[in-house]
Design a protein that fits this description.
Blueprint: H1 8-47, E1 50-58, E2 64-73, E3 76-83, E4 87-90, E5 97-101, E6 106-110, H2 112-126, E7 131-138, E8 142-143, E9 152-154, H3 155-159, H4 175-188
Parallel strand pairs: 3-7, 4-8, 7-9
Antiparallel strand pairs: 1-2, 2-3, 4-5, 5-6
Length: about 200
């Protein structure tokens, strides 16, 4: 008696189809999980003249400090701390811990203002002649019921005045800015012109 699962053609068709479905499912899940991060990166690329992400730089006192993003725009260097928190954010300058409360969870995180000060000092030792603009950027839908400290912004409001039309060519830098950016790339261990390699992490 011939059984359908004994047919070699059946398995030749079913096994590749199963692998294809599994691959498509994995791709769908990956795209969904990484969508917020990819949106943030696309926004930062759009508004920057030059961009470095997730780099480590000398801190000026013999150590090193991690930087979420360095964004050069119109002669100003924005030093960004990116926080992926949503819901109600409760924080103030003198609080050691800030709190995020959403519908799904509540958690505490260290006051990022202290890190912002340390990062700003470190960057100023590297590029003393450049205007430094430190920011703490919340990348999701967050609000601040008790007010928010200076330097804290939502990504949408930070990006709004800096947005460019899509497919705008990368702006050219003047000679002095090019030297400064080259120095930052060298300090971060990223070859100039290869900054995009540091963006995926």
């Amino acid at each position: 008696m011939h059984r359908w699962f004994d047919d070699g053609w059946f398995w030749l068709l079913v096994v590749p189809a199963a692998f294809l479905m599994a691959g498509l499912m994995a791709l769908f899940i990956w795209l969904r999980l990484t969508a917020p991060r990819r949106r943030v990166l696309a926004t930062l690329r759009n508004i920057s003249d030059r961009l470095l992400r997730n780099v480590v730089l000398p801190d000026g006192i013999g150590g090193h400090i991690g930087i979420d993003a360095l964004l050069l725009r119109d002669g100003r260097l924005y030093v960004l701390i990116l926080r992926d928190a949503e819901g109600a954010i409760f924080g103030a300058e003198k609080m050691d811990q800030w709190t995020a409360i959403s519908r799904h969870r509540r958690f505490n995180f260290r006051n990022p203002l202290h890190l912002m000060q340390n990062q700003t000092l470190a960057i100023r030792t590297l590029v003393p002649g450049l205007t430094i603009e430190p920011r703490i950027i919340f990348t999701r839908h967050a609000h601040f019921p008790k007010g928010r400290p200076e330097g804290v912004e939502l990504l949408a409001e930070f990006a709004k005045p800096l947005r460019r039309p899509k497919k705008t060519p990368e702006p050219e830098l003047d000679v002095q800015l090019e030297i400064i950016w080259s120095h930052l790339c060298e300090a971060a261990g990223v070859p100039q012109g290869k900054e995009t390699l540091a963006l995926s992490s």
